[in-house]
Amino acid sequence: MSLDTPRIEARPELLTAHEARQRLEHERNSRLTQLRAVGEAGQGAEEVMSAQKDTIERVLREIDAAFTRVEDGSYGICLGCSKSIPVERLEILPYTRFCVPCQRATTV
Q1: What whole-number distance in Å separates Cα of residue 17 and Cα of residue 26?
Q2: Spatial separation of the C-alpha atoms in residues 94 and 21, rounded to whole Å
Q3: How far apart are CA 75 and CA 55, in angstroms?
Q4: Residue 88 confidence class, pLDDT cut points 50, 70, 90
Q5: Buried-most residue among 10, 54, 57, 77 (CB within 10 A)?
Q6: Could you say which DSSP state residue 97 is in?
Q7: What are residue 84's DSSP bridge partners?
Q8: What's the rounded Cα separation, in Å, for the pair 4 and 88?
Q9: pLDDT, tens digit, 9 for 90 and up, residues 23-65
């Protein structure tokens, strides 16, 4: 390895509180945009729109709960096994409460 070769930085085990808040804000803004779009869609498939609205509202509640976990220091800790949730999972689903194995166990 040459001294000129850039070192590859290892990802930290957990997202920083700032990174978590940024990802959660992005998710919240995306869901609020979706919720407005559903509300503006008008008449037609009311059942489908209602189901979409319910799903978006559920995700918004999960995002709010994740903000609370950031504040109390429990963000990124699996509620099932109390181990750290891999940062890759938090990057994909920043409001998740469970690691993949525990999430699978809760949906069985």
Answers
A1: 14
A2: 9
A3: 22
A4: very high
A5: 77
A6: -
A7: 77
A8: 29
A9: 999 999 999 998 888 777 665 667 677 888 899 999 999 999 9
